[in-house]
Amino acid sequence: MADYTLSDYHEHSKHHLNRYAPGPGGLDWANQPDPFRCYKGAARIELPLLADTLETRYSALRCGTLPAPHPFNLQSIAILFELSLAISAWKSYSGTSWALRCNPSSGNLHPTEGYLVTCSVPGLAAGVYHYVSRDHALERRGEWDGPVELNGLAIGFTSIAWREAWKYGMRAFRYCQHDCGHAIAAVSYAACALGWRSRLLARPSDAKIAALLGLDRATASAERETPDCLLWVSASESLPSDMSSAPSRWHGQPNRLSADHVEWPEIEQAHQLTAKPCLDQEPANRVSVTYETAGKPACDLSAAQIIRQRRSAVAFDGTTSIGADAFFAMLDATLPRLGAPPWCAWPWAAEVHLAIFVHRVDALDPGLYVLVRNPDALAPLKASLRPDWLWHKVGPPGLPLYLLVAHDLRDTARLVCCHQEIAADSCYALGMLAHHEIATSEPWRYRTLYWECGMLGQVLYLEAEAAGIRATGIGCFFDDEMHELLGLRGHAWQSLYHFTAGGPVDDARLTTLPAYTLGRSRCNKRSSQAPDSKPG
Ligand SMILES: Cc1cc2nc3c(=O)[nH]c(=O)nc-3n(C[C@H](O)[C@H](O)[C@H](O)COP(=O)(O)O)c2cc1C
User: Fold this and answer.
1) 288: pLDDT confidence band, cut at 50, 70 and 90?
2) Which ligand 1 atom lies nearest to the CA of residue 311?
3) Which terminal CB of the chain, N or C, has fewer other CB atoms within 10 Å?
4) Type and span of the H or E element at 192
5) Phi, psi dihedral angles at 60 (to 5 degrees)
6) Could you give the maximum distance between any two Cα atoms of the chain, in Å?
7) Which atom of ligand 1 lies nearest, measured to the CA of 178?
8) Backbone angles phi, psi at 472, to 5 degrees
9) How much distance in Å is there from the Cα of 104 to the middle of ligand 1?
């Protein structure tokens, strides 16, 4: 694969109307990857379950009105994980149980692993820890010889691509990146709920992150885990001048997730082609919207409740509609406000915009709309999309929302989303239009585009819950059919993730069990999903 390019990966991993991206051609249930990684032999610290004590309201959190910072200690760190990467419920059907988490994942396969890098805080010794969501516990992987000074802590994210490739084959690399974006946003919301600031560190290279988290030491028998990013969390806006060096002593051996594996060399190539170098400095080109936030959510609930009740809808009723103000408020939350989560954590300018199929929003014509999240993108987008689109400004003055065409697009949305009914039965469905061109000169930005999409997804999931409806991320869509519909030619803009929200219809066959109250180690039930799981 000597001449394989990033553009090859992107094109080969597209779904087409007449041909899906190469996949395994069936599910090898005997080799279903264990959804939980753990490090045998590493000391474990069980975290307390304290999220219910947190008073932060979601309506305040979404606007960036944060409580006074909680002290950095074991209890607060426990809440940080409980409201971001922890299990939120167990589902059970016909003798099989599977865990749901605060962060969603395509196919519920959860390729993203979370790590904590901390100096000594009350209740927790300095070290690099791996988080085990199944048990809400930390495993102490690494420690330093001397004292470590950090003015905050870092959350590290990594991906185990095999978990996704088992089901989705070549397209799995994309889903790993989406899931990482969801996880970044999830931690950012949780940090802000504790009164802390969060910021993705743009400078560290993949190699530096791998060394810090001990990924370069993994054993050959365990599936490869690749570095994604570090999220800095502190009580102030200040960033660390440099992250600490890698620990000098390591503990524990990673578990093997499947007995057997299928190799996807294109995924390995995509990893190598998008490897992130060390940057000279943190980016300075962040932009923030300054006008007043539009609207308030319908449900005034605690942040902890909204975060933990987040679920993907499996079906929509095809009748529920939402008010225009609620819709505008949801879109408004996707705009890059630096004071509010999760955009306070994002170091780059907004490069992803929303092409929205509105089906059922009161007082809004059904049709195709575009939300331009960065004013610099308006002219290039207008020049790239079909010349006869209307571009009528709609909604509150500050909301950069434009009507392109009024039309009933339910059939189109269903078709574009791999014939999935949820795209037509919803209040709206959308595609995330990314400025793909930026990955030409800096290939590692290919990954950050998906991360931004995942963050947008997390915002829309939580906003849907707060509005009294429900959402679903959509990884299965026909890429070029979407581009053709918009009138896009070339590769400067590409749709990288789809999404939909509406009135949910629950699956009455499933039983819901609480997250941890029935005991922590349910590891005998290894499934990551329902036997009739959803596409992605
Ligand atoms: C990147 C991504 C892609 C997804 N793609 C689809 C999809 O195409 N169709 C679908 O019905 N659900 C899709 N989902 C929803 C997942 O199936 C769902 O998140 C997972 O089953 C876990 O359930 P939960 O979100 O309720 O925690 C996707 C989720 C993510 C994060």
Assistant:
1) confident
2) 26
3) N
4) helix 172-193
5) -80, -45
6) 65
7) 1
8) -150, 130
9) 6
User: Alpha helix (H) ranges present in 420-488?
Assistant: 438-441, 445-466, 479-486
287 vs 194, higher pLDDT: 194
How remote is the C-alpha of 463 from its chain's centroid?
14
Total residues belonging to the chain? 536
Mean of pLDDT values over 133-154: 95
| Residue 535: exposure state from Cβ atoms within 10 A (0-12, 13-18, ≥19) | middle
The closest of 369, 414, 345, 313 to 100, measured between CA atoms, is 313
Q: Are 445 and 439 in contact (CB under 8 A)?
A: yes
The rounded distance, in Å, linking the Cα atoms of 80 and 334 is: 22
**Mean pLDDT over the full length of the chain:** 94
Does residue 370 carry a pLDDT above 70?
Answer: yes
Q: Which atom of ligand 1 is nearest to the CA of 457?
A: 31
User: Mean pLDDT over residues 101-106, rounded?
Assistant: 98
* pTM of the predicted model as reported, rounded to 2 decimal places: 0.97
Cβ-contact 226, 271 below 8 angstroms = yes
Structure confidence at residue 299 (pLDDT): 86
Phi, psi of 462 (to 5 degrees): -70, -40
pLDDT score of 184? 98
**How big is the CA angle at 323 (ends 319 and 329), to the nearest 5 degrees?**
125
Supply the DSSP symbol for 293. P
The DSSP-derived string for 54-118 is ---BHHHHTTT-PPSPPPSSHHHHHHHHHTTTSEEEEEEETTEEEEEESS--GGG---EEEEEEE
Q: Is 115 in the pocket of ligand 1 (CB under 6 A)?
A: no
Closest-CA residue to 247 (of 151, 152, 130, 84): 130
